[in-house]
Amino acid sequence: MSKASMSVPDMRHGRDGGGRRQYVTGYVLSLVLTAIAFVLVAFHVLPVPLLLVLLMALAAVQVLVQLFLFMHVTEGDGSRVKGLAMGLGLFFTLAIALGSIWIMTFNSQVQ
């Protein structure tokens, strides 16, 4: 690798100087969201039903932070394929979660 090519930012992988700031921002946001969830649960700040809704909202925001700031979902080619893959992943996740809840709800009636 020549000395000239080492000083030029690698634009193919998004390492143009703003990447580091993006990772630090994502890391700090992840820490803050996790700390908020921990404090809410550890100190019983809210009633349980409201707490569950708020925790799910915090989890959704955490997923968005991970996808956009760390996994760079909007960058690069094939954004349609990425969108379809994420939709399929969301479908499987919801199917497993809702199926598990359904099984746990009606398990006592079967036994």
UniProtKB/TrEMBL annotation:
Entry's localization field: Cell membrane
Topological category with respect to the lipid bilayer: Multi-pass membrane protein
Keyword terms: Cell membrane, Membrane, Transmembrane, Transmembrane helix
UniProt key word Ribonucleoprotein: no
Pfam entry (one): COX4_pro
Record-linked InterPro entries: Cyt_c_oxidase_su4_prok, Cytochrome_c_oxidase_bac_sub4
Membrane-spanning ranges: 21-44, 50-71, 83-104
PANTHER family, per database record: CYTOCHROME BO(3) UBIQUINOL OXIDASE SUBUNIT 4 (PTHR36835:SF1)
Family, as annotated: Belongs to the cytochrome c oxidase bacterial subunit 4 family.
The name this protein goes by in its record: Cytochrome C oxidase subunit IV family protein
